[in-house]
Amino acid sequence: MPKEILPIVDKPTIQFIIEEAVAAGIEDILIVTGKGKRAIEDHFDSVPELENNLRDKNKLELLHLVEETTNINLHFIRQSKPKGLGDAILQAKGFVGNEPFIVMLGDDIVESKVPCAKQLMNQYEKTHSSIIGVQNVPHEETYRYGIIDPINEYSKGLYNVKGFVEKPNPEDAPSDLAILGRYLLTPQIFDFLETQEPGAGGEIQLTDAINSLNEVQRVFAYDFEGERFDVGDKFGFIKTTMQFALKHPEIKDDVAKLVDDLYQQIHKKDKKSK
Questions:
Q1: Which of 46, 175, 222, 234 could form a disulfide with 70 if both were Cys (CB 3.0 to 4.6 A apart)?
Q2: 69 and 182: one domain?
Q3: From the Swiss-Prot or TrEMBL record, what is one GO molecular function term (predicted)?
């Protein structure tokens, strides 16, 4: 099963991403999939039998969740080989045409009053340039992310950028502002992706193309508001699930008790081992 379909409590990860896009006012959405990810397309298929069954049993909340997945203008394209994020975005060239577009990575869920994608769109209205979503990360974790090298703060939270560094060692990191799965890109990025030489791991690196774009057309970084959840690895997925479960109206009390019980058990074991 693709990790994008794994549920955070009762909602697949990909559903959070799509809901953010819809809340931002995006009407046409392209999902780039790959080998073994047909389940993503199946998730968004209409299932009349299930919808009718839920309606007959007056399970309206579940019905709403199901209908949310099917009433969206979605398109799919398959990346034939895993050649990196840059290549995945290049698959969208025909779909995007000559318009700016939002890239939202499936490993990152963002909770915010204003959808993160909408925040980037608002900044684009001021600059008419590409906007990269960033937030501060612990300095010792910069090796996990693309990091920006800021020149100055152009306006509140919006940075002029000298360059973008892919996963630098902490001692080499130019800042602690990390790229966190949200990009607003102008269509000129495709010119650089098409000619980009493969980088680390033989993949087409989006960071390299953004650096090239920044040489001819300013690229900004925006420190977006909201809490970002990383579901790209096992611990991040479990942590996110627990955090969302503790806010879920149906189960939050039971989950809180479970967490407390587990803490007490671990605390007792620690005492015995001493």
A1: 46
A2: no
A3: UTP:glucose-1-phosphate uridylyltransferase activity
Neighbours of 191 (CB within 10 A): 14
81 closest CA partner among 199, 193, 203: 203
Count CA atoms within 13 Å of residue 245 on its CB side.
17
Going by C-alpha positions, the residue among 185, 209, 190, 187 that lies closest to residue 199 is: 209
Whole-structure pTM value: 0.87
Cα separation of 120 and 1, whole Å? Answer: 31
Six token digits for residue 86: 């840059």
Residue with tokens 């925040």: 119
Distance CA 89, CA 109 (A): 19
Boundary-marking domain end, from 63, 78, 93:
78
E strand or H helix at 267, and its extent?
helix 252-273
Looking at the fold, whether 206 and 94 belong to one and the same domain comes out as yes
- % of the chain at pLDDT higher than 70: 90
Cβ atoms of 112 and 199 within 8 Å: the answer is: no
- For tokens 């799509």, name the residue: 18
Q: What does DSSP assign to residue 106?
A: T
If 0-12 CB within 10 Å is exposed, 13-18 middle and 19+ buried, where does residue 263 land? Answer: exposed
Question: In this structure, are residues 65 and 12 in contact, taking their beta carbons and an 8 Å threshold?
Answer: no
Cα–Cα distance for residue pair 52/50, rounded to 1 Å? 5
Tell me the residue length of the chain.
274
pLDDT (0 to 100) of residue 248: 94
User: Token pair for residue 216?
Assistant: 């001819």
- Domain count across the chain: 3
The C-alpha atoms of residue 17 and residue 20 are separated, in whole angstroms, by: 5
> Which residues on adjacent β-strands are paired with residue 182?
104
Could you list the residue range(s) of the whole structural domain that residue 4 is in? 1-78
